[in-house]
Amino acid sequence: MKIDTLIRHIREAYRGIRKNSWMSFAAIGAVAVTLFIFGIFLIFTFNINFLTKELDKQVAIRVTLKDGLSADEEEKLTETIQKDPLVKTAEFVPKEKGLKDLKEQWGNNNKFLDALQDEDNPLPDMILVQPKDPNKTKELADELAKNTTQIEHVDYGEGVTDRLLRLSSVMRNIVLFFSLGLALLASFLISNTIKLTIIARRREIEIMRLVGASNWFIRWPFFFEGAFIGIIGSIVPIILLITFYFLFYDIVNDGEAYGLFKIMPVDQLSIRIAISTMLIGIAIGSLGSMISVRRFLKI
Amino acid sequence: MHDVWKVYPNGVEALRGIDLKIEQGEFVYIVGPSGSGKSTLIKLMYREEVPTHGVVLINGVNVKRVRDWKIPHVRRKIGVVFQDYKLLPNLTAYENVAFAMEAVEAPRRKIKQRVEEVLELVGLTDRMHALPSQLSGGEQQRVSIARAIVNNPTFVIADEPTGNLDPENSWDIMYLLEEINNRGTTVVMATHNKEIVNTMRQRVIAIEQGVIVRDELGGEYGYED
Ligand SMILES: Nc1ncnc2c1ncn2[C@@H]1O[C@H](COP(=O)(O)OP(=O)(O)OP(=O)(O)O)[C@@H](O)[C@H]1O
Ligand SMILES: [Mg+2]
Questions:
Q1: ipTM of the predicted structure?
Q2: Where located (chain B) (predicted)?
Q3: Which CATH architecture has domain B2-216?
């Protein structure tokens, strides 16, 4: 497309928005509401992905050893595991240390734990294994579990991550469902304003056809108009979403109780939200244009 | 055109087996009573309508087979003029003509030069910044002719270009079309104007009820309106 043509299309799109200012305003409002809710969905999604990655980083495979292995055997086994190409680190944790860690984690005045002395320590000896690639955790765990003579059982973070994902995916789907419905509604409103523009310009369109303007030359301004409505409609939700997230982030990170809960830093999230919300706005706008152009623009 | 039929969706047979060949550079009148199919024939020529049956070739292109995206390129070779001018009311004469060049994405430099050139040809240089509402019917029709020829078409089609004009303005338009024809452009014009046809002798094609009843060089109008 030539620069002159591009400028012309943009100018025409702007004229279209100005001309039906009320309809355009309603369409922009609808886009804004839609994108706000879409944005909440996106914040969910981004954070779940973020959290999953964070958890993945911490994922360790806990290899529980059979009772009654000699210290020598235990040391050898640790070395063997360490040599496995999938393994980053393998750390032997004797049951005494396990108990100490547990006590520290739960605080020192837990009567029940305090009562446990080294003699009646119910914990087994363990080896903590960090995989090189978190995605290969399951593969590695299965491989380790084959050594049934020395290893009691192998478990890894599967449970926590999975449960978290399942819970959040329900909420996520509800929000997604809502936003898709709204997106259709917004597209419909946009298609209506563009229909008005098409009707207002039918003489121009007729003449453009007569003198041999290409089909896309005739269509482009309407797509730009839809896209602009989408972009303008995304500005307010982007500002609101980032502001709310900023406040939310502070609350979450202040309370120590939530310490184990890590959410995506504001700067990372802001960029993602801004870009994706605007792109979705453009998509909704273009969809609206397409509906109208297909139905009302006879070329 | 070969054995062309046009049946509208409502069942009206507007054209019934038209055989017609127009050579480059000709000047052709299409005459006939109201409802005989003149406008339909013209619409087939600029591909506003497609034939129900038969072949229409424009500059060697079969308008029925041509792909949608190529239609604009066919239309660029054709300039169309209407009885009601079809000017954009909020653009000046200059802008109306320039609009046709912008629509085919001509470079801006060329637009200014060429638009001024055709406006001079139609004699409207001093009125070029007037809106259509500030122009007389004859002047408006001249703007629409300027628009039709600005992209250098190989032929110009006019459907009753003098239909809304008084005799004096009609003659001005006719001299203009003759001038355009003298420069090598084919001109096809549907008309009810007996005086013009009988004075400015050219090839006359008479249609009645969708069939050609007469086709003669330098013919007469042949109807009593
Ligand atoms: N779009 C259309 N749909 C249905 N019928 C049509 C359509 N256009 C024209 N007709 C019919 O086709 C026939 C030929 O019409 P056309 O407009 O070609 O006549 P014409 O010779 O141009 O008449 P006039 O001299 O009054 O302009 C008429 O009977 C008309 O009613
Ligand atoms: Mg007619």
A1: 0.87
A2: Cell membrane
A3: 3-Layer(aba) Sandwich (3.40)
